[in-house]
Each structure stands twice: as C-alpha cells, then as structure tokens.
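Support case: user asked for a sample of complex input and structure output to validate their parser. Sending the pair below.
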Amino acid sequence: MPLEFLKRKSGASLPAVVPSAASAALPEEVTAQEYQLKLYYAGKSSEGVRFKPGPRAMDELPSMLVGLAKSEIEVVDPLPIEFSQATPTIARPSEAMQWLNAHHVHSPITRHGLVVLETIDAIDLAFDTFVCALLDGEVDTSGYPEYNAIVGGVASHWDEATGDMIVRAVVGWGGKGVRGDTDRTGARILAGLFTNILANQYALGITSIERPVPAAGRGGLVCAHCGFASGHERAFYCPKCGMRLLRG
Ligand SMILES: [Zn+2]
C-alpha cells in the first residue's frame, strides 16, 4: 500500500512540474544572433572600338594592357560548348564544376576578375575573349586581389554583322568591403585602357556595341578553321579565331 502510494505520487508530480517550468521560461521575444555578409562587386566597361579582323588583331590584345598591368597579363579564350553552363556559383555544383574545370589553370588574379565580371554580367565567355591583369591595389598572401584591388583589361568579340573585332576596356573590383575612392580609380584606369585600345594600329574607331546572344539550347557550330565548338548557335564568326563559320 505505501509502495502504491509512492508510485502514483511520483508519476503525477513529474508531468506537473516539467511543463510549468518550461512555460515560465518562454520569453516574450526571441533573442536572435544576427549574421550577415555584404558582398559588393562593381565594374565598368567602355565603348567598343572596331578593329580590322584577323588573327594579328587578336595578338594585339595583351599589348593594350602594357603600362597599366601590375601583374602577368593572361588571355582567357571563349569557352567551348562543353562549358556552356559554367558559372562561379558554388551552390550549383554542376555549373561550378564546369567553371572550375574551365578556369583552374588561370592565376588567382584572373579567377577573381572572372568571378567579379561574370557575376555582374560585364563579360560573357560564350563569345568574349578576356585579357586580364591586376591593375591597381594589392593581393593577399595567397595571391588573390583584395576587395579594393582593380582587375581587368580588355574584352573582345566578333561583330555578327560585319565580322570585325570589337574591343572594349573592362575593369572590376569587389568582395567583402567597399572603399569610396575605388570607383574613381577604376574610371581613371578604364580611360587609360581605352586610350591604349584607340591608339592601336588596327583600331578603326569607336562603335556602338551589340553583344551577341548566347545560345540557350543545343549549341552552335564547330569551326572548320580551329576546331572550336561554339556554345553560341547564332554565331556567324568563330568566337575564338574569328573565321567565318560554315553552315552544313
Ligand atoms: Zn575558329
């Protein structure tokens, strides 16, 4: 009988105590820990300059960075069809893997430049050839540009109407921070690059840019001259070598 009494007593007291203690601890407002990251990417692109077509004009592209580049000048060719989904977005593994496979060979400066300028849609490697270097600021101990460092150079593509090469100056910067004077420095460097483009012996003059539209679907043609398989189905000219694409 005493045993039965104890059992019932303890069994009844436990559920009575626990919820009342929990409800007493409920605050009127939830105290939240705040987390935030502000990424800031920015860039500038100049007007286009029309060039006499041909492989010699392409070879001139790196020379347009001379006097402004503070690192080795790297050339990034347009991406062939197998990299048509390449995007520097790590949460999309298939697109990110294509991007890494296409660009892991490049320097940290060029990869940073591609991330910034592709993210803000200032360049599109479906048709752009991108020539890149560090143009202002510092790199960290791993060789990656600081948020206020300016990277870029020139981008070129083939005009679908005429087959001429169109070259423009492109600069970008950004990351976990922003500084007030970076925009002004970027504008000054863009002007310097644009002057170099116009001063080139093959330059024909300033032109309005009509950027080609990359293919959404099955992709385009294979260049008979250099073997490049374009992801750009409307291309008349090979994004890589600039020769006329033959339609079968
Ligand atoms: Zn080609």
